TrEMBL record:
Signal peptide: none annotated. One of its GO terms (molecular function) is glycosyltransferase activity. Residues 14-164 form the Glycosyltransferase subfamily 4-like N-terminal domain. Residues 175-337 form the Glycosyl transferase family domain. Coiled coil: none annotated. SUPFAM superfamilies: UDP-Glycosyltransferase/glycogen phosphorylase. One of its GO terms (biological process) is carbohydrate derivative metabolic process. InterPro entries: Glyco_trans_1, Glyco_trans_4-like_N. This is Glycosyltransferase involved in cell wall bisynthesis. Keywords: Glycosyltransferase, Transferase.
């Protein structure tokens, strides 16, 4: 079985990392041949080459350029795969499906976000795919509400390598690396600096939290277009000295175990790979009850959930856990067990392989 995977993200964020997990898992099974179409200079291209996966360039035109469909069609003509698996949005989900239809090759699409789409767009795009793979039950519900037939939607949850995040904390290294003073709790947010991730609600809650915990620090991991606006907001609220912008970190697995809490105040979220990473590291989580987040954060089990966009509720939940280290530690242990039990990489790979076999009639 030869499969062409299409992933146009340039950074090895959550979605692209899932593609890499899948490619490596398929290679371990040895009964399929995977190829990856992606930007030549992307992080996933380098990682896939290192893993021995053949990489093909999607070109420089960008996700929205119609030329991508032509380039993918030519690639399909050369490779003659049995199946196309499209992993990206922002245009690639359309061009990949059109190229596969043009070449007469069955295709499947992974849907990783819970953003609503217009029904006219849904009616044109999703019929290009034999199956749409939702990474959470929350996303599946969005797809069904938009009119995608239930028999064409399959849920296969994302996964993380739990062993990679089960590391001890080195407090001196952690605080020195981020320029944090000794003592005081540290919160972390692991998300792109974009509006739907809800960083602003944590900044709104921070003055209240600092009254209870004067030594509290917040580290924002990730990069994005809102960095300058968030820096300005932190200054306006008088909490700039308590906030660190850490950017994208390759050593996140070493950083996470040193956090007291991970906070994720997103307004929309497909599932949240960063939440699975935090849980695997044994860190309790306070998050918004949005999209697929309640599947990764079980309220009262491995964290607390609050209403999206509610800064006072966020402050109260974070404050309660910081004031109760025993409860936080229990939730951290429960998070590790949850990831091992329900978000295993081999289970994710097996779920995708079942979809492939079903589509191909094998």
């Amino acid at each position: 079985m030869r499969i062409l995977h299409v992933e146009t993200g340039r950074h090895l964020y959550g979605g692209a990392a899932q593609v890499l997990y899948l490619l490596e898992g398929l290679a371990r099974h040895g009964d399929s041949e995977s190829h990856l179409a992606c930007p030549r200079d992307s992080a996933i291209a380098a990682a896939a080459r290192e893993a021995g996966i053949p990489v093909h360039d999607t070109g420089r035109g960008g996700d929205l350029a119609p030329g991508m469909a032509l380039r993918l069609r030519r690639l399909l003509g050369r490779l003659r795969p049995d199946l196309v698996h499209v992993h990206s949005r922002r245009g690639a989900d359309l061009w990949g499906g059109l190229a596969a239809r043009w070449a007469g090759v069955p295709a499947v699409l992974s849907r990783r976000v819970d953003n609503p789409e217009p029904r006219w767009w849904v009616a044109r795009k999703y019929p290009l795919y034999a199956r749409t793979i939702a990474i959470s039950a929350g996303i599946r519900e969005v797809l069904l509400a938009e009119g995608v037939p239930a028999e064409r939607v399959v849920t296969v949850p994302s996964a993380v390598d739990a062993r990679r995040y089960a590391l001890p904390c080195d407090p001196a290294w952690f605080r020195g690396e981020l320029g944090l003073p000794d003592g005081g709790p540290v919160l972390g947010v692991v998300a792109q600096l974009i509006e739907r991730k809800g960083h602003t609600y944590l900044l709104q809650a921070l003055p209240v939290l600092r009254e209870r915990f004067p030594d509290l620090r917040v580290v924002l991991f990730g990069q994005g277009p809102l960095r300058a606006a968030l820096e300005d907001e932190a200054r306006r609220r008088g909490v700039a000295e308590a906030v660190r912008f850490a950017g994208f970190r390759e050593d996140l697995a070493r950083m996470l175990p040193c956090l007291d809490l991970v906070v994720h105040p997103a307004l929309r979220e497909g599932l949240g790979v960063s939440l699975l990473q935090a849980a695997a590291a044994g860190v309790p989580i306070v998050a918004a009850r949005a999209g697929g987040i309640p599947e990764a954060v079980r309220d009262g089990e491995n964290g607390r959930l609050v209403a999206p966009g509610n800064a006072p509720a966020l402050a109260a939940a974070v404050g309660d856990l910081l004031a109760d280290p025993g409860a936080a530690a229990r939730m951290g242990r429960a998070g590790r067990e949850l990831v091992r039990r329900e978000f295993d990489i081999e289970a994710m790979v097996a779920g995708n392989r079942r979809v492939y076999r079903e589509v191909l009639g094998r």
